[in-house]
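Example S7 (structure tokens).
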């Protein structure tokens, strides 16, 4: 056979070998990505109530820098940490108080993978029947004086800015520490009527305490605010990372200043009765991604 016949045949063989190589590489890459996606383990409840938080934990058997969570219209990048030779991340996702019952969509994926590789879940939101409390109090506790409206709105704006933060540093782990040992005097979500007038639901947890008792941080974090407010009295707000912020109200004294880093259990102030209250106690609040959520299920001894 002439040499001219061997050249086309050799060319075809080389091209075929190259094609096989490319296909094998693509199949190997696809197989690796399938294994990476399959290796994700996601833990979250199937159903939650309004005014609560969904605790999500995701683990990967292979190294990953971060995970991308999607909840409703929000997307959040959460750094991974290594624990027991697996890569993990956790996030609290809020269900707003009075949120309509129905199905919410959730997904999570490795930060190095396309959205099509996400693990998806459905979470059923159920309505919680919160109690109603009817109170008769002096008029000054019901109607806000006009002279204080501007001050109150400025205070609310500073708080909204803090609650709207999403810092990537993770300082919290569940369960949170109880800020004072006292029992609950008013639970989260309580519907109050003052002198027959319906008011906004109670968006925190009132805990009994004697004036001057220590109030301690529920988790590590950075103090964002420590100042006196009209309604809340002396308040402290702490950013714990990933959109989790705790608040401590009606304090008689501060033990921290803005910018301070605290550890779980550090004293942040003293129980008091500052602001618009009738007696000493701690109003403790937790906000997740800007939404107030029930603190008790996330505290030591709670159910979550």
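Recovered sequence:
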């Amino acid at each position: 056979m002439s040499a001219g016949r061997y050249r086309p045949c050799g060319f075809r063989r080389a091209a075929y070998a190259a094609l096989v190589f490319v296909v094998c590489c693509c199949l190997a890459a696809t197989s690796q990505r399938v294994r990476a996606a399959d290796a994700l383990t996601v833990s979250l409840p199937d159903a939650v109530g309004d005014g609560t938080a969904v605790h999500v934990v995701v683990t990967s058997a292979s190294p990953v820098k971060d995970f991308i969570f999607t909840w409703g219209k929000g997307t959040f990048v959460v750094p991974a940490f290594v624990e027991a030779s697996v890569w993990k991340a956790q996030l609290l996702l809020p269900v707003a108080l009075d949120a309509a019952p129905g199905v919410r969509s959730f997904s999570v994926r490795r930060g190095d993978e396309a959205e099509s590789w996400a693990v998806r879940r459905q979470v059923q939101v159920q309505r919680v029947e919160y109690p109603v409390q009817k109170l008769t109090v002096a008029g000054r506790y019901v109607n806000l004086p006009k002279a204080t409206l501007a001050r109150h709105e400025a205070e609310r704006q500073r708080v909204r800015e803090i609650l709207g933060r999403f810092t990537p540093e993770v300082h919290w782990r569940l369960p949170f520490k109880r800020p004072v040992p006292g029992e609950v005097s008013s639970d989260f979500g309580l519907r109050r009527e003052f002198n027959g007038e319906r008011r906004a639901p109670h968006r925190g947890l009132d805990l009994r305490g004697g004036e001057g008792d220590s109030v301690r941080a529920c988790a590590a974090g950075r103090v964002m605010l420590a100042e006196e407010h009209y309604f809340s009295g002396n308040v402290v707000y702490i950013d714990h990372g990933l959109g989790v912020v705790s608040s401590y109200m009606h304090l008689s004294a501060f033990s921290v200043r803005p910018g301070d880093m605290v550890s779980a259990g550090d004293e942040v102030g003293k129980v008091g009765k500052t602001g618009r209250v009738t007696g000493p106690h701690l109003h403790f609040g937790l906000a997740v991604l800007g939404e107030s959520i029930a603190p008790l299920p996330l505290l030591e001894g709670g159910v979550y």
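Notes on this example. The first helix runs from residue 3 to 38.
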